[in-house]
Design a protein that fits this description.
Elements (H helix, E strand, L loop, with lengths): L11 H17 L6 E5 L6 E3 L3 H6 L6 H6 L6 H8 L9 E3 L1 H8 L5 E5 L3 H10 L6 E3 L3 H8 L6 E6 L8 H15 L4 E8 L2 H12 L6 E7 L11 E7 L3 H18 L7 E6 L3
Parallel strand pairs: 1-4, 1-6, 4-5, 6-7
Antiparallel strand pairs: 2-3, 7-9, 8-9, 8-10
């Protein structure tokens, strides 16, 4: 599946992913100790919702624009982060994960971004100008292993690939296993699309075999039943989520489900521990 992000910026998956990312980092920041935030597939950092690629799919209409139209205050933090890169009114620009993470930084925190594609890496450096982010242009999985454990005692690794390569899930599984051996208490967030249910369930079985004790699964299903051959939603695997995050998760997930449900569908967001 090709998930080049400029075509999908601001879609429902982004709303869920970035809302949860904000909540996760803020839960970790309840402790004063420094955090290192690492984004292995950082992309361009900023996307034009009026550009040709975003307009070709129109997915932001069912994503960020729905979130902006919804009055639920639990989505206020997400809306504020999007609004921070816009000038009033309806969003014209959409921040990628690097921008969301940069907005969350405290003076003691570090941000490490990586993007292998040269053109996207160039755009990323421009988008992050004025921030303290370090930008790398390396293989994502090599960087992931090289950066853990981070210099700070705590940290988060965000893994958000385009799933263009057929071995993407296998590389994530192998790298996660190796990274967990090096950094068992580290927090890792892995995003994935929900399209081919057979592939999805097979991967879940492989991840369960890793035996990671605290591996939370959050899945956002857009439709009331699976739609063959199309994008059905997205999920997150979260290793070692903090307690404050998991306790606050149910009402946030319900707010997201209600805001993003397509016409004629209720949608569903599920969360559970992988080993359960």
């Amino acid at each position: 599946m090709n998930y080049r992000h400029s075509f999908h910026a601001g879609n429902s998956a982004d709303v869920v992913k970035h809302s949860l990312l904000i909540a996760l980092v803020r839960a970790l920041q309840l402790k004063q100790g420094a955090l290192t935030l690492i984004d292995t597939h950082a992309g361009c950092g900023l996307y034009d919702l009026g550009g040709d690629e975003a307009q070709r799919t129109g997915e932001a209409i069912q994503g960020v624009l729905r979130a902006f139209a919804d009055p639920n205050p639990l989505l206020d933090d997400y809306r504020a982060a999007v609004q921070a890169v816009n000038v009033g009114g309806e969003p014209q620009l959409y921040p990628g994960s690097p921008q969301f993470l940069a907005q969350l930084l405290r003076p003691q925190d570090l941000l490490v971004l990586n993007e292998k594609h040269p053109e996207d890496a160039y755009a990323l450096r421009g988008a992050m100008r004025g921030t303290s982010a370090a930008v790398h242009e390396r293989d994502a999985y090599e960087l992931w292993l090289a950066m853990v454990p981070p210099r700070t005692a705590r940290g988060v690794v965000v893994v958000d690939p385009p799933y263009e390569q057929t071995d993407e899930r296998a590389r994530i599984t192998a790298t996660l296993a190796a990274a967990h051996r090096k950094w068992a208490h580290g927090v890792t967030v892995i995003w994935y699309p929900l399209k081919d249910s057979a592939t999805h369930w097979q991967w879940k079985k492989q991840l369960r075999k890793l035996g990671i004790p605290k591996l939370l699964v959050v899945e956002h299903w857009l439709y009331d039943r699976e739609q063959p051959g199309i994008y059905n939603g997205a999920g997150l695997y979260i290793v070692n989520p903090p307690y404050a995050f998991t306790q606050a998760l149910p009402p946030l997930l319900e707010a997201l489900r209600a805001a993003l449900a397509p016409e004629g569908h209720k949608g569903e967001i599920l969360s559970d521990w992988l080993g359960d």
